[in-house]
Amino acid sequence: MNNMKPTIEIEYCPKCGWLLRAAWMAQELLTTFGDDLHAVQLRPSEVAGRYTITIGEELLWDRKREGHFPEPKEIKQRVRDIIAPDRSLGHSDR
């Protein structure tokens, strides 16, 4: 059932030109977790400078809090820890 699978949302600042960065992260997540996710949504933010990644209600990444953009490896590990804690991510775990 799709409604049991989580949705990841990437909220990005369009005025900052971060759509491609957000789309690339969505592609990385869908490539790794495609069978485990309902969707990865891209949402243009009305807040300047915002780049956040959430899964359900849980905040995985906030660029302002973390001080930098995430690497795909960092996000994949955080997503994996939530949706499939026993899964190996292969090269992304190193």
Defining key terms:
four-stranded mixed beta sheet; 94 residues; alpha+beta; 3 helices; globular
Ends: how far apart?
32 Å
The largest sheet is:
4 strands, mixed
Mean pLDDT, all residues: 93
Query: Can you write the helix and strand succession as a string?
Result: EHEEEHH
Question: What structural class do helix, strand and pairing data support?
Answer: alpha+beta
Shape by Cα distribution? globular
Summarize the helices and strands and which ones pair or pack.
Layout: E1 7-12, H1 19-33, E2 39-44, E3 51-55, E4 58-62, H2 63-66, H3 72-83
Helix pairs in contact: 1-3
What can you see in these coordinates?
This protein is of the alpha+beta class and 94 residues long. Helices cover 33% and strands 23% of the residues. The protein contains 3 helices and 4 strands. It has a 4-stranded mixed sheet with strand order 2-1-3-4. Strand 3 and strand 4 form a beta hairpin. Helix 1 packs across helix 3. The longest helix is centred in the first third of the chain and has 15 residues. The model has no long low-confidence stretch (mean pLDDT 93).
